[in-house]
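Discussion board: Methods & Data

I've been asked by a reviewer to show the raw model output for two of the constructs in my manuscript, not just the figures. I'm not sure how much to include, so I'm pasting the format here to get opinions. Each protein appears as its amino acid sequence followed by a line of discrete structure tokens. Is this the kind of thing reviewers expect to see in a supplement, or should I convert it first? Here is construct A:
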Amino acid sequence: MEQIIATVRSFEGALVVVPEPGGDFPELAWGDAFFYYAPDGRMPANVQPYGTIITKNHPDDAASDLDPPGRWRVNVNAGRRALSELAAGEPGGAGGRPGPAAADEVVPHPVYGALGWISVVNPGARTQDTVVRLLRAAHDAARARAERRHATGRAQEDG
């Protein structure tokens, strides 16, 4: 987990938010990590992270079985095309993809898979490079969106 956080922090313009006790974030987010494109170092308003690391089950998201010690999940907004290429087949079926609790497997996010999010519980030798590649692509896409928003804002100010 720390290796992935360090890798994302090395991306130009990346902001990694890791909520801790006593901060402004709800207790449910403590210990998790949220990845943004934010070259000014401030968490962007009205923008979702392009990736996260979740360290525990959430009330509406327990399919990955993250409560046992040592289990965590990285989630990436990979896009629908990448999702269909990486996680084809039906979960649990013969020749299908693994279920959402399988470790070191790329699977659709148990809640946001239909929106193009992938998940990997405890990335290891099989998925580590894929996760980093997807995080880099998601970071680059977030940067492109931010640049388009900025350019649109400038055009409206000039108009």
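Construct B, same format:
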Amino acid sequence: MNRMILLRVIGISAAIVLALHAGMEFYGDLIRPNFRAGDLFSGEIPPDKAKLATAGGLASVSWDGDLLANYGAAAAADVLHRPSIDADGRASEIKAAQAAVVAALKVSPIRPALWLTLGTLQVQAGEAATPAVKMSYLTGSVPIAVAISRVRTVTSGAAATDEEIRLLAQSDIRSALSNRSRYEPLLVAAYVQATPQGKSLLLETTKVSDPKFNEILRRY
């Protein structure tokens, strides 16, 4: 008899847990930010802070990779698009956004644009972004808008000194050059803002892929 009662209790408990899980999944689908990491690099406006706060509350207890990734990307975009005026407040916001992105990557690491998001936040915080940027290359392909942003991140920081990243970044630069009429201003801007190592990377790649554009860059 006691065994039957125990089995019933276990069955009821399991049913409650499953119901709660299903409810959280349904609620998560309703409030999940419609914002992906790639949107951050396409200039999309992030959700308002009220929606972010609601999504953040659920993300703190969720293992849904899409929810965590979307929230992390939206939190990063919020920091970058709506930075706090106060330096301490901005630093705190960047750390919180980094924590959200890291939490998502722990659950679902095959997200190249989200790795670049982490690298972008690390650059904003004055931290080394080379490992995160490298992971953005190693975990898959990205849309051209993300690739252009990655070129800018690589060429403007210490990542341009890493030989493996230099080789990987050449594919991003060549992708942009394949539609040069559209992306030429962004490549020029990246060159102007680049470190000496970043400039050499852009010059070396364009010298082979597009000598005419190489001549344009050398004017700046």
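Answer (T.O., handling editor elsewhere):
This is acceptable in a supplement if you add a one-line summary per construct. For B, something like: Residues 2-31 form the longest helix (30 residues).
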